[in-house]
Amino acid sequence: MKNQRIQERYDDFARVECGELCIVSGALTDISETGFKAEFNAPCTIDSEKEYTVLLRLSRISTEPLELTVRPAWYDFNDGKTSIGFSILHSKDTARFASYVKMLKDDKKSEENNGVTSFDSESLFI
Fold first, then answer.
1. For 70, left (φ over 0), alpha (ψ -120 to 50), or beta?
2. What value does the mean pLDDT of the chain take?
3. Which helix (H) or strand (E) holds 105?
4. Residue 60: per-residue pLDDT
5. Which residues are CB-neighbours of 122 under 8 A, at least 6 positions away?
6. Which of 2, 28, 65, 66 has the fewest CB atoms in 10 Å of its CB?
7. Burial call 36-51: b when 16+ CB within 10 Å, e when fewer
């Protein structure tokens, strides 16, 4: 599926919080310039026509969580878990999100060239 995407996706991790969708936090599994995929270990109530506000607590930077307005682009239920692909709409933290994805893109190029990546030692996750 990743090979059919228009935007390049980057593997990453973040905590995804959206009480309107699910009572438990989800985990971001990949990210692109226009959206991200999240996995929830519980069933979610999804309205694909609705806009949701999510908080992303990024693993590689220790700033305040990103507050984004998103819309589900697709979703899948499997074994009591829910996978959701989100499209990012214009949001309060759109610029911060774009900057973070640019950092991932630059890191990927750097890894390909000499194996060095950016990492914030004050990360929220260890």
1. beta
2. 85
3. helix 94-114
4. 79
5. 62
6. 2
7. bbbebeeebebeeeee
